[in-house]
Amino acid sequence: MSVISSVLLLAQEPPAPPKVEAPPLDAVWPILIVLGAACVGVLFEAFLPRHQRWPFQVVLTLLALAGAGVLLATYISDAPAAGELAMYGTLAVDRPALFLWGTLLALSLGAVLMIADRSVEPGGAFVASAAIRPGTVQDRAQVAATGMQTEVFPLTLFALGGMMIFCAANDLLTMFIALEVLSLPLYLMCGLARRRRLLSQEAAVKYFLLGAFASAFFLYGIALLYGYSGSVQLADIAASAGGSDRSDTLLFAGMGLLVVGLLFKASVGPFHTWTPDVYQGAPTPVTAFMAACTKVAAFGGILRVLQVAFESTNWEWRGVLWGVAIVSMVIGAILGLTQTDVKRMIAYSSVAHAGFLLVGSIALTDKGLSGTLFYLLAYGFTTLATFGVISLVRDSSGEATHLSQWAGLAKRSPLVAGVFTFLLLALAGIPLTSGFVGKFVVFEAAIADGMAPLVVVALVASAVAAFFYLRVIVLMYFSEPAAEGPTVTVPGAFTTAAITLGVLVTLLLGIAPAFALDWAAGGVFAIR
Amino acid sequence: MTGISVPGTNLAMEVQQASGAAGAAWLLLVLPALGAAVLLIGGRRTDKWGHLLGSGTVIAAFVYGLFLFLGTTSLAEDQRVRDLHLFDWMPVNALDVEFGLRIDPLSLTFVLLITGVGALIHIYSIGYMADDRDRRRFFAYLNLFVSAMLLLVLGNGFVTLYFGWEGVGLASFLLIGWYQGKDFAATAAKKAFLMNRVGDVGLALAIFLMFKTMGSTQYDVVFAQIGNQSTATVVAIGLLLLLGACGKSGQFPLQAWLPDAMAGPTPVSALIHAATMVTAGVYLIARCAPIYSLPQAADARLAVMVIGAVTLLIGCVIGCAYDDFKKVLAYSTVSQIGYMILAVGLGPAGYAFGILHLLTHGFFKAGLFLGAGSVMHGMNDEGDIRRMGGLARKMPVTFITWTLGYLALIGFPFLSGYFSKDAIIAAAFSEPGNRGWVFGGIALLGAGLTAFYMTRLLILVFLGKPRWKDLKSEDGRDYHPHEAPATMTIPMIVLAVGSVFAGLVLSGMLPEWLTPSIGPLVEAHGPLSHGMIAVLTVAISALGAGLAFLLFGRGEQPVTRPRRVSFPVRAARADLYGNHLNEALFARPGTWLTRALVYIDNRGVDGLVNGIAASLGGSSGRLRRMQTGFVRSYALSMLGGSILVIAALLMVRFG
């Protein structure tokens, strides 16, 4: 904490004069609603009897998401096209930020539905009291009981609020605080799994330790950049970098550290090491939430930092991020080949996708921005539904995630196998799915910005990655079912709704992506 | 070359908007797609009538295609190229990808081939797959394939084409792996998919390059502007498209998947891996005639010719050594597509002949495959030709239809292959200078080899002594060869009639009919007259066939294949080391890379496995020890990455 406070002290000098006189709240109402509902949710936990908490929390969370969505929609209809600064210049509410907010709210809706489901896993995927030592008598008793930890709902809302602030943050300190607000609830939620809780808690601790490590990088980067430009505002850093005789060592070392912190959150290789373990260990609804929403928020931050603060120095850093993107795509595509666990495989797939997204992010053009935003939207929904389907295939000990258990699934449950095949094809980028359109717009923007060799690598990587998606399809359709294989649970209304949402959006964005591409291309960052 | 090129701009400006009956051309795609959807979603409920629905949709598409064809022939020649706009797929910024269809002579030719041969093979499959529990699913996949293939040829832009391109790849993958119990089927399916992906990367890059340089991927815009591009761009696009064509059409160096694809059911081999999908590469290059005809694209076209010539020789040579009925036919397909690629590489002097050979080949090769299927159907699914012999008496219809297809393939005078293959050989000879002698010579040599291996096949399967009498099949049954049911023989008869007459009927009309799409046929004349080349070709083919009769027609043939053979035969049996080449170039480095990465990542993976074991065993002490170890190593890798990133940044700045 001393690091934080010292940086806060550094930032004590009066912030840049507010560009807007009174804080106009109408731009930030969605965030206020989400965070406010989270606080109310905490009060529910404190004052409601145990058995009433679940319905109250579910209704509150869904209402908050819907309310935030409605307010966002009404605001967008008459928002200034160039965007505006809110909360004394700490938040830049511009078109990309609004697009990301909408994406985050919609994805969270799907994730919350999965979190709220109590039919797939009797009582829900979350244990009532995670503090009981795993493996003890009390623990076995509570695994069998149907109580559920309802604090995950406010935690989800807090994380969502942090993500929304994160992609609109206009200065690095706000960004850092948002990063912590979004991360801390996630660390907790990772450790709450009802089944295989040791693995879950191991994942939570790993995520926490490595996340703290990455936060330290991020913070150190902020300090160096402050030393360089005397400000933490993205626009001021850009102005200093544009023309000054200050030490470039501070600038690039600071930028490197800052970007590493961001790449960690986005699980871009080689900073991906936590991803497979955490994706596997966390309760599947939380994995879905992380895989979809954290990715969106992290890339929202990366896009903003690169395009607003560091655009003028892109000649120096672009080559380095080329390398990072290549490493990420190669790691994701090749290590995905040898995975034997579905959740780990999708984790490596997300590392490869992070590489593709990075390709779009370093194309510093309007097309690069809109392509990456669209890709985030498309990927978020696909991956959400993917984890939804994964949560359905179960045996007596919980989810059956080992690939060998998926053999011949198509014979047992053709519908689930068909839906999963469609989602895998979307991840592989086959036409008629959103994955194809997303890859197309991102690679096309990269080519237009002179990154043809990188696109060649990306295409080869996606060809390799297609292979491991295909392996699962082969396994489901072409193998004999295992004798004591898992059964497919008939999902309740909540999970069904979440999967349907993801599949429909994946299909819609594959067939008629025009409207979403228009939204994504609606405008650029407020300050460039 | 005679120096005449087709100006791409002229072709592009004649595009009309489709209306009337052509306005419903989307029906062509929707009918089979609907069939596939009903069969897949309906599940077991549709088992009883699924095969009828599957065949019905394709027949309906064929009938509609016929109407469309007749309607187009009644139009004036400059109005025959029509676009049907369906909807804007990805309209954003400068990127405007529309989803539309192009109805022109070239695409209609393919529509008739795909739906016509497709319908026959659907009918054949009713009989062939009668014993399969999942016949309904088989028809669903076939319908899916037909729909995707029609999209491939009907799309009016490269992205739409790519869409169909991936679709046929997927359907082909599903069908190659049909016999799930057999390991080699799954391996073959994967191999096909992967080698196709290599080609797809080429096609995708070509599309991106077009977009970058010309701002669009629609045919009309690209073909109108390609002439203004630099030579480097045109050659690059040409070569990348060729890579795509090589993948899909089984051309050197990506030919190895096609013979393995014969692991699928025989109707699939006939429809997808002989008549339609594998000709997509030929279609692609013919469709891109405005690109390849440019003077700047001369180098790319030379590359096309070289690939075609090399492949046709490879296919023939390997075809001489194989003992598996379908694999010989597969290598024959590889080599015949080599002829087509060679032809379209010749430019305006060859496009029409390439398509002509594609059509005639569609008839006789599909017929030959169906014949092979009929033989195997009657022989307990035996594919080894050394275990056959003397089947002509047992299967008269199969024998006669097969022989007609065989004669058509080796270019027997006045049958289909005679018109199409001779035209290609003559056009190859008319290339200027030494090129003419080289390519013409190779094409001529190929004709002789084709006659040799096809005659060998004919003798070993249908003539000679019935070697199967004393043998049992793998599952221990005796062989009782018998003629196939009518649903199988009728398509064979229809295709045999096509093999006999298609060349005669088409060779006169086709070049003129295709002119609006690919430009007029340029008559080229080389040092040898056409008559002389025809005589030469027939003579060399006769020589090849005669040699085969001398070698295999007399005396006993061993039932197992001889082990001690000369080097050329060994090389041919090993696919001329194509697989070794691929392995050395692609597979082995890939394996090393994977191993290296896995090794680096191993601590994490091992840790996971141990972690599960530990959590199951409840040994928390052990787990804790491991856990710190892993986080430390993860953190170390992050630190290493960060140092690298920062060092690189600073080096770029100050270095």
From TrEMBL, chain A:
Locations listed in the record: Cell membrane; Endomembrane system; Membrane
UniProtKB keywords: Cell membrane, Membrane, NAD, Quinone, Translocase, Transmembrane, Transmembrane helix, Transport
Primary location recorded for the protein, binned into one broad class: membrane
Domain NADH:quinone oxidoreductase/Mrp antiporter transmembrane span(s) in chain numbering: 169-462
Ranges annotated as spanning the membrane: 28-48, 55-77, 97-116, 157-187, 207-228, 249-268, 288-307, 319-339, 345-365, 372-393, 413-442, 454-478, 498-527
InterPro entries: NADH-Q_OxRdtase_suN/2, ND/Mrp_TM
Catalytic reactions on record: a quinone + NADH + 5 H(+)(in) = a quinol + NAD(+) + 4 H(+)(out)
EC number in record: 7.1.1.-
UniProt keyword Amino-acid biosynthesis present: no
One GO cellular component term: endomembrane system
GO terms for MF: NADH dehydrogenase (quinone) (non-electrogenic) activity; NADH dehydrogenase (ubiquinone) activity; quinone binding
GO biological process: ATP synthesis coupled electron transport
Bilayer disposition of the protein: Multi-pass membrane protein
Pfam family for this entry, one: Proton_antipo_M
Source species, domain of life: Bacteria
Function: NDH-1 shuttles electrons from NADH, via FMN and iron-sulfur (Fe-S) centers, to quinones in the respiratory chain. The immediate electron acceptor for the enzyme in this species is believed to be a menaquinone. Couples the redox reaction to proton translocation (for every two electrons transferred, four hydrogen ions are translocated across the cytoplasmic membrane), and thus conserves the redox energy in a proton gradient.
Family assignment from sequence similarity: Belongs to the complex I subunit 2 family.
HAMAP family: NDH1_NuoN_1
Quaternary data: NDH-1 is composed of 14 different subunits. Subunits NuoA, H, J, K, L, M, N constitute the membrane sector of the complex.
Name the record gives this protein: NADH-quinone oxidoreductase subunit N
Lineage summary: Bacteria, Bacillati, Actinomycetota, Actinomycetes, Pseudonocardiales
UniProtKB/TrEMBL annotation, chain B:
Transmembrane segments: 20-42, 49-70, 106-126, 138-155, 193-211, 231-247, 268-286, 302-322, 329-349, 397-419, 439-463, 484-510, 530-553, 634-654
Keyword set, alphabetical order: Membrane, Transmembrane, Transmembrane helix
One Gene Ontology term from the biological process aspect of the record: electron transport coupled proton transport
Localization (cell): Endomembrane system; Membrane
Domain of life: Bacteria
Keyword Transmembrane helix applies: yes
Gene3D superfamilies assigned to the protein according to its UniProt record, in alphabetical order: 1.20.5.2700
Lipid bilayer topology: Multi-pass membrane protein
GO cellular component, one term: endomembrane system
GO molecular function annotation: NADH dehydrogenase (ubiquinone) activity; NADH dehydrogenase activity
Domain NADH:quinone oxidoreductase/Mrp antiporter transmembrane, chain residue ranges per copy: 158-440
The keyword Transmembrane helix is assigned to this record: yes
Residue intervals of the NADH-Ubiquinone oxidoreductase (complex I) chain 5 N-terminal domain: 89-139
Name of the molecule in the record: NADH dehydrogenase subunit L
Annotated source species: Actinokineospora iranica
